Amino acid sequence: MFVLSSRSRGDVLAGVCLLVMCAGPASAGDLEPPAGPVGSTMKALDVVEPRVAVGPDTTPGDAHHMYVIDRSGSYYLTANIAGEPGKTGIKVLAPDVTLDLNGFTIRGTPASDHGIEVDPDAPRFTCRNGIVADWPLIGVMAEEPGDVHIEGVTVASSGSMGMIVYNGIIRDCTVLGTGSDGIYASYRSIIEDCHVRTADGNGIRAGADSIVRGCLTVRNTGSGIVIGGPHATVRDCTTNRNDGAGIHIVGGVGSLVTANTVCDNAVGLMFAAGGNTCRDNHVQDNADNYDFVPGNSIALRLSEIPETIDWPASVTLEGTLTGESGEHGIDIRSGDVTLDLGGHTLVGVEGSLTGIVSTVEGADGIAIRNGMVRDWGEAGIDITGASPGRNSDQHIDAVRALRNGQSGIRTGFHAIVTGCVAVDNNGYGIGVGNTSVVERCTAKGNGDYGISIVERSIARTCVAEDNLTSGFSGYQSSTFIECSAGGNAAHGFRGYRINVLNCLAFANAESGIDMSDDCIAQNNRCIFNANGIRAAGDGNVIEGNLVRGNTMFGITVDGMDNIATCNRSVNDATAFQFLGDTVYGPIVNAAGGGDLSAITGSDHPSANIMK
């Protein structure tokens, strides 16, 4: 309760007195009503409801139409309409007409024509809020006039198309069971939040510069959504279980298909024209997920395997995917494909083939990154099909290949493999073609070489441990830099015409470094192997290496034109063995310890020192 203070009550009373004094004497008004009848104060019905009810008196029909709207204005239904043989339900002849079905139904008969037909010379037509059903021809036909707006209308069981609009907007509509396309919209149209089901044709068909957004098309005998012209957009739609494609671009350039869900169709996404963009769609369980002609920009979210990539594309896994017996996981048959595993795994099953494969000559520009490939019956990754003799631009980054039946990772020529791990594969851990680079990779427990490189290739800062043959294998001017090989069943490093620089080889069953003909071993550490370094052949250079604790020889060289200088042997069973016509620096025995300068020959610039 609000209470006035004593001061407030005084102020109010003073104000009241002042008002009375200023107002002067009041005069009473005339209390008698005026003579004559009292007039109505109610407004006319056409002012309160400025619309016209559709009926035989307000919109009379003719021989071909039950009702005809021939004047601009706003119209509405007051009851259901039952069709008549040989007639259209409502014909609109005037422009600027709004028709509110008011929740009622316009229902045809087997011999009727169209439900609602708009004349070509009647633009700016709006229809909303009702049902148009059982018309033998078209439910709502506004084929030629522009600026058509249909909202909240259900069309069911039309003998032909459900709706036709020209340069219009169709929103929140439902079309069921039509004899042809469910919704047909020509250029510059918007079809939004509509549902089309069981059309005996395409669900939605739109023309150039149109937008199809948030729609659902299900169980149509044609395609779910068809775009027939340039610069259209299909976004955030769901199209499932159609007999044709889920989404089909039949012509034009510059269209965008994005963020749609496309499942259980004959074809998921089909682009019959180039120059369009596809990205970030969920496509799954279609008989064929993708069918693209060349020349489109494609970014796929892959949700199932096996899958074949026949066109340049950017592909990202939606999650961990499991393969099938007798099938490759992802078969890349085009160049310029980027595959991002997205941190997920491609999992093989018994009898499966290769996880990621590309054996097609000319499939250049393949990039694979960020995930795992495991348990495939053949290789984890085999992309050896790149064209030899040119830059194939293959790049594999941050991929783990585990327990595959053959090699973990194999590439063609001119590849770059970085940050990868290959473990417990039955073949090579990692094998690359000519003029490739392998960097910051690890290969452990593989059934063949850990990392194999060939002509003019480089392995840098890699680790190969516990492999069942040698840790690293090289051929023809291949180079190992700052790599580590340990615990391998054969050699740490092995090759013909190889360079081994600043590397570590430890606890390998045979030689730390085993090389033949025109090789260089420089500034390496070879520890606790059978032989530290073994060079069998001609023209080898062994310089500046530390060999220690090897059970046979620290360094053994046999052949023609070999050079061994500035090496250090510590606690090897036999420090140095230089056979053939090997040129070597003085062998200085420092077994007694002490000041090295007091030992004869120790000041020679090429001296080999043993302890």
Could you characterize what this model shows?
- With 611 residues, the protein is mostly beta strands.
- It has two helices and 66 strands.
- The longest helix has 18 residues, at 6-23.
- The chain is rod-shaped and about 130 Å long.
Provide a compact summary of the structure.
The chain is 4% helix and 43% strand.
Q: What percentage of residues falls in helices of 4 or more residues?
A: under 10%
Provide the β-strand percentage band: 35-45%
Task: Tell me the total number of β-strands.
Answer: 66
Q: What is the C-alpha radius of gyration, as a whole number of Å?
A: 42 Å
- Cα(first) to Cα(last) distance is 106 Å
* Widest sheet: strand ordering: 11-13-16-19-22-25-28-26-23-20-17-14
Task: Tell me the overall shape.
Answer: rod-shaped
Question: Assembly state here?
Answer: single chain
Return the structural class: mainly beta
Feature tags:
mainly beta; eleven-stranded parallel β-sheet; rod-shaped; disordered N terminus
